[in-house]
Amino acid sequence: MADQKIYRASTTAPVNIAVIKYWGKRDPSLNLPTNSSLSVTLSQSDLRTHTTASCSSTFEGPDTLLLNNAPQSLSTARSLACLKSLRALRSELEDAESSLPKLSTYSLRLVSVNNFPTAAGLASSAAGFAALVRAIADLYELQQSPTELSLIARQGSGSACRSLLGGYVAWDHGIRDDGLDSHARLVAPKSHWPDMRALILVVSAAKKGVSSTTGMQTTVQTSSLFQTRTKEVVPKEMAEMEKAIKSKDFATFAKVTMRESNSFHATCLDTDPPIFYLNDVSRAAIKAVEEMNEKAGRTIAAYTFDAGPNAVIYYLEADEDAVLKTFLPILRQKEGWGKTDTKIDGPGPASPQVVEVLEEGVSRVILTSVGEGPISVPEHLIDDEGKTVDT
Ligand SMILES: Nc1ncnc2c1ncn2[C@@H]1O[C@H](COP(=O)(O)OP(=O)(O)OP(=O)(O)O)[C@@H](O)[C@H]1O
Ligand SMILES: C[C@@](O)(CCOP(=O)(O)OP(=O)(O)O)CC(=O)O
């Protein structure tokens, strides 16, 4: 009798927030970057994508993806590239071992849920494509390492390659035309520096104006600052950042993180037409962090911003009190403090203007920390009859 089994594998995957930003492609179709980048993988206890990949000879029609309960196209060049590479690896296994079920020939059904806003500058594409690749690789029982799989996730979304690993992760730009040397690399596992924390001030959970993909293309074409950033600034910052992480030197980590975010946003402003990702609320967050560092007499926190106004503030657990005493007094009423004692009092930011803008502009907070890479989970979003489970 023909194989009617429903094969399934599920994973969760993390978001990562870069401290050295990827911005610019040297090859847009393969998603090869103009510069290397480096990120901190964030804990899946707070932000995660949960994806189930399933296939069966009984599934009819094309591959499908249900994302947050809505059908999502898998016929984009990026998704097709990921699926093609994964199928090719499975097919190699099947050719080598004829008793294996021919999963590579079956239609795929994918169901995925992000526990945070999608396409709102919270790196959903990173967690999303990392989860998609990891779940299908598990379904196909591929033996490739996370670094090898990162080559595939990169084709879905550049930053996704860094979400295949936990801790502190670099993405080396590589020099080969085929991109085989453009993959994620572990700089240090979470266990090396586990006390890294991140406070995210969610400024806008709405879909952003200029997508990263479009924005970086325009920057490459029009910004003259971009050339210096790629050739001179980033290589130096990468070296300094790796050293800071290896020696757990937070002050240097923080200074490079802030300089890097500002260099990236300066390049956006130097783009024609200019791209504005930061807004008044972002600038108030920058001011609050600067005031806090000045008051502490050392650098205890670092801000960074991706392609949107949300602030990510990195700090060490030992300095949590100072960070909370700055932000809690004005953001106490907002959602997201979790188990934190929201009664903690403190002076808050010194400048009344900063207080007013943050109070009004921050919609919620996320308190999280450095975390692990994708985790295989037994909870499937597709049942053993191939039906989507209610989420
Ligand atoms: N769980 C998921 N599974 C598969 N694809 C996903 C998933 N989540 C997001 N995506 C893809 O990523 C796209 C959103 O990417 P986009 O870069 O616009 O936003 P973002 O990643 O949230 O923001 P940013 O990259 O600026 O941090 C979605 O439209 C979808 O195609
Ligand atoms: C500002 C960034 O977050 C840009 C991320 O860009 P994407 O990875 O979303 O771009 P595509 O490769 O076109 O999908 C910086 C970073 O994460 O390094």
Automatic annotation (TrEMBL):
<keyword id="KW-0067">ATP-binding</keyword>
<dbReference type="InterPro" id="IPR036554">
    <property type="entry name" value="GHMP_kinase_C_sf"/>
</dbReference>
<dbReference type="GO" id="GO:0004163">
    <property type="term" value="F:diphosphomevalonate decarboxylase activity"/>
</dbReference>
<dbReference type="InterPro" id="IPR041431">
    <property type="entry name" value="Mvd1_C"/>
</dbReference>
<dbReference type="GO" id="GO:0005829">
    <property type="term" value="C:cytosol"/>
</dbReference>
<keyword id="KW-1207">Sterol metabolism</keyword>
<dbReference type="Pfam" id="PF18376">
    <property type="entry name" value="MDD_C"/>
</dbReference>
<feature type="domain" description="Diphosphomevalonate decarboxylase-like N-terminal">
    <location>
        <begin position="13"/>
        <end position="183"/>
    </location>
</feature>
<dbReference type="Pfam" id="PF22700">
    <property type="entry name" value="MVD-like_N"/>
</dbReference>
<dbReference type="GO" id="GO:0016126">
    <property type="term" value="P:sterol biosynthetic process"/>
</dbReference>
<keyword id="KW-0753">Steroid metabolism</keyword>
<dbReference type="InterPro" id="IPR029765">
    <property type="entry name" value="Mev_diP_decarb"/>
</dbReference>
<keyword id="KW-0444">Lipid biosynthesis</keyword>
<dbReference type="InterPro" id="IPR053859">
    <property type="entry name" value="MVD-like_N"/>
</dbReference>
<dbReference type="GO" id="GO:0005524">
    <property type="term" value="F:ATP binding"/>
</dbReference>
<comment type="pathway">
    <text>Isoprenoid biosynthesis; isopentenyl diphosphate biosynthesis via mevalonate pathway; isopentenyl diphosphate from (R)-mevalonate: step 3/3.</text>
</comment>
<feature type="domain" description="Mvd1 C-terminal">
    <location>
        <begin position="198"/>
        <end position="375"/>
    </location>
</feature>
<dbReference type="InterPro" id="IPR005935">
    <property type="entry name" value="Mev_decarb"/>
</dbReference>
<protein>
    <recommendedName>
        <fullName>Diphosphomevalonate decarboxylase</fullName>
        <ecNumber>4.1.1.33</ecNumber>
    </recommendedName>
</protein>
<keyword id="KW-0443">Lipid metabolism</keyword>
<keyword id="KW-0456">Lyase</keyword>
<dbReference type="GO" id="GO:0019287">
    <property type="term" value="P:isopentenyl diphosphate biosynthetic process, mevalonate pathway"/>
</dbReference>
<comment type="similarity">
    <text>Belongs to the diphosphomevalonate decarboxylase family.</text>
</comment>
<keyword id="KW-0547">Nucleotide-binding</keyword>
<dbReference type="InterPro" id="IPR014721">
    <property type="entry name" value="Ribsml_uS5_D2-typ_fold_subgr"/>
</dbReference>
<keyword id="KW-0756">Sterol biosynthesis</keyword>
<keyword id="KW-0752">Steroid biosynthesis</keyword>
<dbReference type="InterPro" id="IPR020568">
    <property type="entry name" value="Ribosomal_Su5_D2-typ_SF"/>
</dbReference>
